[in-house]
Amino acid sequence: MFSNVTLYLIIALCATTFVFLVTIFVLAIVRCHASVHMEESAVMQGAQGVLVQNWPTASSAAEVSPQWVLASTATAGTFAMAPPAVLVRMGDKGFSALQPIFCFASFIVALHLVNGDLSYSIPEEMKLQSVIGNVAKDLSLDLRTLSSRKARVDSEGTRKRYCDINLSTGDLVTSERMDRESLCGKKPSCVVKVDLVLENPLELHRVSLHIQDVNDNSPTFNENLIELEIRESADKGYRFSIDEAHDADIGQNAVQRYSLQKNNIFILAVDGNKVDLVIENKLDREKQSEMSLLLTALDGGSPQRSGTVVIHVTVLDANDNAPVFNQIVYKASLPENSPPDTIVIQVSATDADEGVNGDVTYNFVHISDENVNVFSIDPKTGKIKVSGVVDFEEISSFEISVKAKDGLGLTSYAKIIIDVTDMNDNAPVIYLKSLTNPIPENVSPGSEVGIINVQDRDSETNGQVRCSIQQNVPFKLVPSIKTYYSLVTAGQLDRELVSDYNITITATDEGSPPLSSSKTVQLSVADINDNPPVFEEQSYSAYVTENNKPGSTLCSVTARDPDWRQNGTVIYSLLTGEVNGAPVSSYLSVNGDTGVIHAVRSFDYEQFRSFKVHVMARDNGSPPLSSNVTVSVFISDVNDNSPQILYPAPEGNSFMTELVPKSAHGGSLVSKVIAVDADSGQNAWLSYHIAKSTDPGLFTIGLHSGEIRTQRDISESDSMKQNLIVAVKDNGQPSLSATCSMYLLISDNLAEVPELKDISYEKNSKLTSYLIIALVSVSTFFLTFIIIILGVKFCRRRKPRLLFDGAVAIPSAYLPPNYADVDGTGTLRSAYNYDAYLTTGSRTSDFKFVSSYNDNTLPADQTLRKSPSDFAEVFGIVILLLR
């Protein structure tokens, strides 16, 4: 409780301080009002002194403070500082036009058409690499695309590829020897067809090569010696058939005419391909029983070629009946692949003669080298058998001439036509013409990755092929041109699920039974960075005890990236953030390779108990992908704080005394010790103990409540002054403690204690002294402030009179501290003065032009009213005093 004098002193001090503050506040309001009035008057009198913000252009206005430049002069020595103009400042972020981004998905559909056939006519036996023609020019193809589109010449099946394409020039050149006779035989037209294949998109051009015959073969006879036995009774004009000569060439280069060695008996009769030796004069065995004639066959080529055969004629007795076939033409059908000795057909001829003249023998005539090894004929029976391999795919039909001759040389002829029936003996063959390997995993469905060609040498239904692919792969076959198929993707590829494919393609024909073949295509999927790293856990928790060592390991985060190589390499980093106002990097660090998180500093549980950080896992792909995870760090408490006693105050800070009534009974509450512990958990569980007391049996303290109670009733013999030392312990390991002193007075009234009276009086006396000193100081300062204001006011009233002297210094306009001020002398009357104000932040200067002072000098009373310098100086003094 305060005494009356102390209370009065407090009231006086508060009142004096309040009056002083109100005075300063009123002066400030008057100063502001005078400034506004002065500005309006200055404008009316033509004052033009304005300070304008000069914003630097060297950097953003958001970064540099504005500078003030005096823009124009004021008249009559009076300066008015106008408020700065409103300036809209923009950051250095420019406006960017938002441009929509349109994604165009282009699906290219290859229209596979046979674009125009080419036909070239070339002679046979051309040298290798001879130019046939320029397909690029003839098909209007760009030379630059031949390589990119994988232009190539393809032939069907296992046939030779007789030509190739020069990708740099577009020329079609020969790559194999072309012998017309081996290719086409006697066919009047010999055409070799090849395919010109281009990819992306797939194009197929049929190129026909017309092989022109060259006279490179001489006529030949089947035999080197022809034996003829002619009876001398043969009539004039009787004909003996001679096997014609064969020339592998055709047309004009084939056999054109025959010539017979001159003799007196025979002449040569040629009718088309039929050559007969005709008796022109009667034979006379007695004169000439034998003779040899040279028969020459000539072609029409240039240079001309020829072949010869010797006809040996033996003159016999008469045989007037020749063998006669029962059919002029025999036809037979033979399945291909028939085994040897299979009877194809049997021919039969009869001779009306008897004996040797009626014995008929059979043999082949006019048979090619290919056919002579396929069939054989029994000379006695006329049975034709299979002696070689019959392959429909090589020769589908045979035409053979059979000669029947009797014992004395008379002959007749028949034709045998053998049609070979196709059997389903050829399985389809799969050719991989093109393959893109590896395939990017982000390739769109329907993209072409390969070209397949399937061929079956069989004919009709046996050669019709169906092509299929296994079902468990994201690929399919799309029919294209003829027997070509495109291998395209049927779904989305994912290298992380399947990185390699073994695609089995099966081709089956329509034969009975059907034949099939398969081919395995190996495809690899190239990795694309399409998977971000994925953390093994959705969030991580780390537990660390406080006061840990910097650099200790807290936990480890792990992210997996299923991509391959650098696309799957994971790098860890901390995302920027703050923990209690400090960068997260000042608390934790993470190993970029292993993901191990370390503590950068020692943590204090009492400052914060937990915090969260975000860890980013980024791969090395292009562009890189990343993912984040939250790591929660929990700090465990350590018993590092002693209990803090709140009541009573620790020793030395204050004097705390509790009164205990003399009539207190046992168990009465005397006081309570209040303590807290900054730790938590069991480290903050406090227990209270009386360490020392004046009378150990008089007071007790609650173990956990801290309540001090009497153990027994107070007696007259107990000491009036009781001193207790209370120890407060926590439950940590090791335990920490604090002590305090509790002063107890056993009394019903403080007046009974003399020592307390003296203490109270002494304290009140000191407080009163302090209040008197404060009151005198404030009053003295206030009076001094009033005297200074009045003195300044009195001195300023004399200043306007000096304006009539004509030599007055113009008060400088107020400038901010970032300008250097260079004032003029102010003594010129009829000219212009200027003040240069140099900005300290630049090399440029702004000039203030001032008109003549005397021209616009105001009267003394107006100058006194309009000049703001009085209030400025007074206000400056006030500010100085307040400081």
TrEMBL record:
The coiled-coil regions, if any, are none
One Gene Ontology cellular component: plasma membrane
Transmembrane domains' residue ranges: 6-30, 97-114, 770-792
Q: Which UniProt keywords apply?
A: Calcium, Cell adhesion, Cell membrane, Glycoprotein, Membrane, Repeat, Signal, Transmembrane, Transmembrane helix
Q: How does the protein's chain sit in the membrane according to the entry?
A: Single-pass type I membrane protein
The terms under GO molecular function for this entry are: calcium ion binding
Gene Ontology process terms (BP): anatomical structure morphogenesis; homophilic cell adhesion via plasma membrane adhesion molecules
Database matches in PROSITE patterns: CADHERIN_1 (PS00232), CADHERIN_2 (PS50268)
Q: Where in the cell is it found?
A: Cell membrane
CDD domains registered for this protein in UniProt: Cadherin_repeat (cd11304)
Q: Where do the Cadherin domain residues begin and end?
A: 165-221, 222-325, 326-430, 439-535, 536-645, 660-756
Q: Name one Pfam family in it.
A: Cadherin_C_2
Q: Which domain of life is it from?
A: Eukaryota
InterPro entries named in the record: Cadherin-like_dom, Cadherin-like_sf, Cadherin_C, Cadherin_CBD, Cadherin_CS, Cadherin_N, Protocadherin/Cadherin-CA
Checking PANTHER family in the record gives: CADHERIN-87A, PCDH2G3 PROTEIN-RELATED
Q: What the protein does?
A: Potential calcium-dependent cell-adhesion protein. May be involved in the establishment and maintenance of specific neuronal connections in the brain.
| This protein's name | Cadherin domain-containing protein
The organism named in the record is Dissostichus mawsoni (Antarctic cod)
